[in-house]
Write a structure and sequence with these properties.
This protein is mainly alpha-helical. It has helices at residues 2-11, 13-32, 42-50, 53-61, 77-92, 94-100, 104-135, 146-172, 178-200, 207-229, 264-282, 289-302, 304-326, 329-338, 350-385, 389-422, and strands at 231-238, 251-257, 341-342. A 3-stranded antiparallel β-sheet has the order 2-1-3. Helix 9 (178-200) crosses helix 16 (389-422), helix 11 (264-282) packs across helix 13 and helix 15 (350-385) packs antiparallel against helix 16 (389-422). The chain is globular. Its main location: membrane. It comes from Candidatus Magasanikbacteria bacterium CG_4_9_14_3_um_filter_32_9. This is Protein translocase subunit SecY.
């Protein structure tokens, strides 16, 4: 079955070109990830990342670009941070909220502001990262002049904007979300190295841990597929149209997905959870109250229990939040009324809007809870086995499976549209 789909993709010129273009962009991303900024001690940097859980996780989601101190070392993190800021502003700033409700035109304006905000955020994050590395006990950066510092920051910022541009080009090809695909490619690129380490360091005494990891991986994959594919079908009837002496109204359904937000809540949650310790690392070397608060913040986030609780709450909360942003019950109710359609037992208009909103909240409650539990399940196993790879593996699987499902759906949708066009 899957082989037949690959053949169909290859036979359709437009889809084949889109897939090849996306693969080409991902190759360019991986090549850029191996172009280091000159003058950095990458060996000492790798040692620093291995001993620091927070930056080790950041390195994973940047696709290993940090350990190479590459020109794209920040990945798409500044762009994601900028996106989160504008999503939150939509809840408290009326003008941004109006833009979000304007449809495609409003989204284009928000996208433009998000891109502009990414530049200063990337500049600040690159400066913070360099200073954190300079303050570490490892000789990573060394003594650099103001001109060298400025050059490195500009290079890293340009690298982030380059990845953002690539991500948007990929999104336009309708073969998946570009930003998610870049993160996906970064995680996949680390898999061979992880497998190699597991094989080299294999010990028969660790067989239980390996089996446990495999069980967690299977549970995570199955759970993400179930949640991603799950939906509730709301029955919808269209007004009866009389044709001659008799006629029947059409009946269909309105699908409401359990996880409408996809992989975005996970990416948002990771970005937010990593932000406080990242900033705190910058002030760890200071003397006085600021240094004390910074060191306390780092210690708190290094605590697996606190980290797990925050991660759970963030995934849960962002699933609700992002669904609220992309799901418009008022517009759905209005479109149904215009088409002469209605939900049996529910009055058109405001009652339909309230019904859709209430139903979606119940569905998302289950989806968000289930997704959050799956997200922290590897952390629970990590606490039992005392190995770091399980926590990273679980979060990675969430993103890999979700993005893979999204890619499959978008490609399948293009194939279906092409077949309709031929008819």
């Amino acid at each position: 079955m899957w082989w037949e789909k690959i053949q169909r993709i290859w036979k359709i010129k437009d889809i084949r070109n889109n897939v090849l273009f996306v693969l080409g962009m991902l190759v360019i991303f991986r090549l850029a990830a191996h172009i280091p900024v000159p003058g950095m001690n990458t060996e000492n940097l790798k040692s620093f990342l291995q001993g620091n859980q927070i930056f080790g996780l950041m390195n994973l989601f940047s696709g290993g670009t940090m350990e190479n101190f590459s020109i794209v070392m920040l990945g798409v993190a500044p762009y994601i941070t900028s996106s989160i800021i504008f999503q939150l502003l939509g809840m408290i700033y009326p003008k941004i909220e109006e833009m979000q409700k304007e449809g495609e035109a409003g989204q284009q304006k928000i996208s433009m502001y998000t891109r502009l905000a990414t530049v200063p955020l990337a500049f600040l994050q690159s400066y913070a990262m360099i200073n954190i590395l300079r303050q570490s006990q490892f000789d990573i950066v060394g003594d650099i002049t103001f001109f060298q510092l400025s050059s490195i920051m500009i290079t890293i910022t340009a690298g982030t904007m380059f990845l953002m541009w690539i991500g948007e080009l990929i999104t336009d090809r309708k073969v998946g979300n570009g930003i998610s695909l870049l993160i996906f490619a970064g995680i996949i690129s680390a898999v061979p190295g992880v497998l190699q380490n597991l094989i080299i360091n294999y010990n028969s005494a660790d067989l239980f841990i390996y089996v446990l990891f495999l069980i967690v991986a299977v549970i995570t994959i199955v759970a993400v597929v179930v949640i991603s594919e799950g939906q509730r079908n709301i029955p919808v009837k269209y007004a009866r149209q009389i044709r001659g002496r008799s006629g029947q109204g059409q009946q269909t359904h309105l699908p409401l997905r359990v996880n409408m937000a996809g992989v975005i809540p996970i990416i948002f949650a990771i970005s937010v959870v990593l932000f406080p310790p990242l900033i705190a690392q910058f002030f760890v070397g200071h003397i006085g109250i600021i240094g004390t608060i910074a060191r306390g913040t780092v210690e708190v986030f290094n605590n697996q229990t606190i980290y797990g609780i925050l991660y759970f709450l963030m995934v849960f909360g962002f699933t609700f939040f992002y669904t609220e942003v992309i799901f418009n019950p008022d517009k759905m109710a209005e479109n149904l009324q215009r088409q002469g359609a209605f939900i049996p037992g529910i009055r058109p208009g405001k009652e339909t809007e309230n019904y859709l909103k209430s139903t979606m909240n119940k569905i998302v409650l289950f989806g968000a809870l289930f997704l959050a539990v799956i997200a922290v399940l590897p952390l629970i196993v990590q606490g039992l086995t005392h190995t770091q790879s399980l926590a990273i593996g679980g979060t990675s699987l969430l993103i890999i499976v979700s993005v893979a499902i999204d890619i499959a759906k978008q490609v399948e949708s293009q194939i279906t549209m092409h077949e309709y066009d031929r008819v």
